[in-house]
């Protein structure tokens, strides 16, 4: 089955037959990533950061969020340590077919996919990447994170990843005042985040999407 999707803003996404889900909003993969994870989540933290910012991504997927984060780190000359988990990695051939570098006018996208699993990769002077090929349930960090990109598939497809128990695991690895952003604004997600110790804010979504969530670790 053909997995490549062209979204409304011209950027590529992929389709998962296993979960019957696309990796990004059909309204625009690039617009979604920039709005929810970069502008709502990362930028406010970077603007106040005096030292290295630690970012955790649930669902490395196509690598789009990591790519945008890397380029912002270089632009602002801010140090970022980026850790991502992915249970079902995209193949190198699929990654090579994605148009994010051409669309953004930025180079180096495949460096993210060529970074080996469970290895610290110095992608640039400002951006260090570590990818873990495992399920979120099996991930443990010895250091807390400042920013969380929560980009799992929809709660209908992966309900086990949107529970209070799972968000409690995330909260335990997030510093007080740390920020989590996600595209899902469903009631079950808001309740689970609050139960796990986050203060939940609802924000305008990208494009025609009504709302997204930003949660602050209390």
TrEMBL record:
Pfam families attached to this UniProt entry: Methyltransf_30
Superkingdom classification of source: Bacteria
GO molecular function: oxidoreductase activity, acting on the CH-NH group of donors; tRNA (5-methylaminomethyl-2-thiouridylate)(34)-methyltransferase activity
InterPro entries xrefs: MnmC-like_methylTransf, SAM-dependent_MTases_sf, tRNA_MNMC2
Transmembrane segments: none
Domain MnmC-like methyltransferase: 140-217
Name assigned to this protein: tRNA (5-methylaminomethyl-2-thiouridine)(34)-methyltransferase MnmD
Organism from which the protein derives: Dyadobacter chenwenxiniae
Gene label: mnmD
């Amino acid at each position: 089955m053909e997995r490549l999707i062209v979204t409304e803003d011209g950027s590529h996404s992929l389709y998962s037959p296993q979960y019957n889900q696309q990796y990004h909003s059909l309204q625009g993969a690039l617009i979604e990533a920039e709005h929810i994870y970069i502008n709502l989540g990362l930028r406010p933290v970077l603007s106040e950061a005096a030292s290295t910012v630690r970012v955790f991504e649930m669902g490395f997927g196509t690598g789009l969020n990591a790519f945008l984060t890397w380029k912002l780190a270089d632009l602002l000359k801010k140090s970022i340590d980026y850790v991502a988990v992915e249970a079902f990695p995209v193949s190198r051939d699929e990654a090579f077919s994605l148009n994010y570098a051409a669309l953004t006018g930025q180079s180096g996208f495949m460096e993210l996919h060529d970074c080996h699993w469970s290895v610290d990769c110095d992608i640039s002077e400002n951006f260090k990447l570590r990818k873990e090929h495992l399920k979120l349930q099996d991930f443990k960090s010895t250091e807390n994170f400042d920013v969380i990109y929560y980009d799992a598939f929809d709660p209908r497809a992966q309900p086990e990843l949107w529970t209070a128990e799972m968000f409690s695991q995330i909260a335990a690895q997030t510093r007080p005042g740390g920020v989590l952003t996600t595209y899902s604004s469903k009631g079950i997600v808001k309740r689970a985040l609050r139960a796990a110790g986050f203060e939940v804010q609802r924000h305008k979504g990208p494009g025609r999407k009504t709302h997204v969530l930003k949660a602050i670790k209390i």
